[in-house]
TrEMBL record:
UniProt keyword Chaperone present: yes
One Gene Ontology cellular component: nucleus
Name assigned to this protein: Proteasome maturation factor UMP1
Keywords: Chaperone, Proteasome
Top-rank lineage group of the source organism: Eukaryota
Amino acid sequence: MSLQLTPSSHNDTNVSTFDTSHNEFGVHDTLRHGTRSLKAEVLPGHPLENRLQEWDQTRWELKLNLARQTYGLHAPIKMMMEHDLVSKRTRMPVLPSSNLHTDILLGKDETIDFEDFLNTPDMCTDMLDVHTAMEHKLNMKI
């Protein structure tokens, strides 16, 4: 149980090429671990880069821990259940969805991000015909 406000500045996800080597051949396994990057092995990442990548996850964990300490064990379980239910998309693929419920649960309803003003339907590239989208959805169920 941690009440950490910001993510740690060091990156714990560094994987060496010895960890990604194939058991039989001893060379880097490209199919399972992607192409090998010597730059990532030699140069450590900037501390701010890891903090930005882990910011939302750390904030969510802090919110769950504070709810657990304040209200008891049921509160974070309820919050996680609500987040799982709300994050599932139940609308037709063509209809726009604002994900307002997810924003409220994560505390992003009070901030203005680039998704708020650049996520307009006019700029959307995945606009489809309603009939085609419903046929595709029906074919996926069958």
